[in-house]
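Section 5.1 Outputs to date
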Amino acid sequence: MEGLHAFTRKAEALGLIKGACIGRDNMSISHLMYADDVIFFGDWSRSNASNLISMLHCFFLVSGLKINVHKSNVLGIGVSDDEISCMANVIGCGVAKFPLKYLGVPIGCNMNRCSNWSPIIKKFSSKLSIWKARLLSVGGRLTLIKSVLGNLPTYYMSIYSMPAAVCNKLESMRNKFFIGCDHDEKKMTWVKWKRCLASKSQGGLGIGSIYGLNIGLLFKWIWRFFTHPCDLWARVIQNIYGLYGGINASPARRSRFSTWRSILSSISKLKQKGLDLLSLCSRKIGNRASTYFGNDTWCGDLPFKIQYPRVYALDTDKNCLIANRISLTDWSGILRCNPRGGAVQSQFDTTLSAIENVTMSDKNGDTIATRWNRFIPIKVNVFLWRLNLNKFPTRINLDRKGIDIGSVLCPTCQGDVETVNHAFFNCVLAKDLWTLMANWWELDIPIFANIFEWYAWLDSLHFSSVMRMFIEGVGGILLWSIWSFRNRMLFSSSPSKKALIWDSFISQSFL
C-alpha cells in the first residue's frame, strides 16, 4: 500500500491525475487508504479516469499486485446517472449510489432517522434471542451486557449521534435482559437502570450508558481536532469550517447536513443543559503529592528540566512538587532572578502556558462506592450490591410495593418482620451462622445490625488487604447462602434442611 501511495503522489505531482479540491483553499485529495481498501478522488473527466487506470496498470507491472477493477465501483457527485454509467463502462467497474455502506458504516443517509439505526436494533434482538436470560446467572448477564451489548453499536456511535428513541430502546432491551426477562416478558425491577449504569465509584455496577458512550466517542473527535491539528482529516475540517473547525460558531452559522455539524450539535445541546465539555478540556493529574515539578515526566513526553532548562536553572527549589507550582501566582520568590527577555523569557512564558489549564483533583464525594471482591463470583458481587441498596424482594419490600403476600413475618423464624437487616443479621438462623463463621476463622465477630456495620468492622481489621478481602468474600458467600436457603424453603418442592446450610456454605467458600 505504501508503494501505491507513492505511485499516486507521483502521478498527481506530474499532473497525470487531478484530485478533488475541497474547502476554501482548494485543498487537493487524491486518495484515502485503509488496510487493503482504497478510495480515489478526482475531477470528473475521462482523461483523469484513463490516467488513473493506466497508473494502476503500471503499479501492477512493477509490484505484481493487481487491482480488481470489476469489483470496484464509481460514484459521481453532481453528475447525471447517464454520465456515471458511461464512466463505469470506460473504467470497467460497477456503479454506486448514495446512500451506501463503506467499511460497515452508512454514508450519505440521514442518521437522525430511527429507521437508519434498525441494523443495530436487529443485532441486539438477534443476540438476545440466542441468549436465554433465564438460564444465565446475574453475573453472566452482567458480563454479556458489558462485553457484548455495550459494544455492538460502538462503530456507528463513533461517528453519528444516536437518536433518543433508539437509545431508549436499546437501554430498555439491556435492562430487561439484566433482570432476566425474555422478549416481550414483564418482570419487576428492583433497582433503577440508571443506578446500574453508574460507575462503581458512584455506587453503580459500572455498566455505562449508551448515551454517555455516544457523547464520549463523538467528543473524542473534537479532542483529536485540538491535539492533532495537522492530521489530514483535521486539515479538511479546517478548510471547510475555518481554522477552529466552527467549534465556537453559533449553530445557525454552521453548514447543514454534515457529520461534523452533527457532532458539534450534540456538544452544543449538552452545553445548553449546563454541561460544557469544551470548558473541561484541561489536563488533570490527580493528587500527585509525590510528583516532582521539574524532575518527573508529567506534562509532555519529557521532564520540565529538559523541556525548559533555563527556567529550571533559575528555580531555587529543584525538588519541589507539582502542587507547589500549579497554584503559584507570583514566581519572583522562587526564581534566582526575574526573566529579562530572550530565550529565558520565552521558556518562562511557555512554561506558564503549559501549566495554565492543569488542575489538581481529589476523588471525594458523598456517594458510597460499590465494593467489588475479585475472589467471589460476579453474581455474588451483584447480590451484595443489591443488599447494600436494600433492593431485595423481602416480604416487607414486596408489601411496600403493594403486592399481597399474606404475611410479612420472616419465613425462617416467624419472630419478626422480614426486612433485609433481619433476614441477614438479626434472624436466629443468621446469628447462628455468623457465630459458626467466627469459630471457623477464629475471629471475634460481633453481632451486626446491618451490612454497613459489617463493612465498617472489616475496614477496621489490622490484617493485610488480601486477608480482609478473603474474609469479606467468605462473609458474602454466607449472606448468599442465607438467601438461597430462604428461597428454597419457600419455592422448592423439596425444601433444604437447616442442618445442611453450613455444609453448603463451606463447600461454596472453597469454590
